[in-house]
Write a structure and sequence with these properties.
Layout lengths: L1 H22 L4 H14 L8 H14 L1 H21 L2
Helix pairs in contact: 1-4
Length: 87
């Protein structure tokens, strides 16, 4: 019963861990720049200028967001399989 309640939190933990590993790939100046861009845009890239969007895409490529997506997907699928087996 305890494992059933913990399974979703373990998935969240794995997603956060993977995100942190990719975030740490950026140097501190780039992290500050991404944070500034996200703050100014309020999470909507349409609120940024074309140059700012290009910078954000370049920073995303440095973080390897495709691999992050794969890591998150893998954590979610494995976690769901574990959760279903415990029933």
């Amino acid at each position: 019963m305890l494992l059933r309640r913990l399974a979703p939190w373990l998935i969240v933990f794995e997603v956060l861990r993977a995100g942190r590993a990719h975030w740490d790939r950026l140097d501190p100046a780039d992290r500050a720049h991404v944070s500034d861009l996200m703050r100014r845009s309020h999470g909507n890239p349409g609120n940024l200028t074309a140059g700012d969007r290009a910078q954000l895409r370049a920073l995303g490529r440095r973080m390897r967001l495709g691999r992050l997506g794969f890591s998150v997907l893998t954590a979610a699928v494995v976690g769901r399989r574990r959760h279903r087996r415990g029933r």
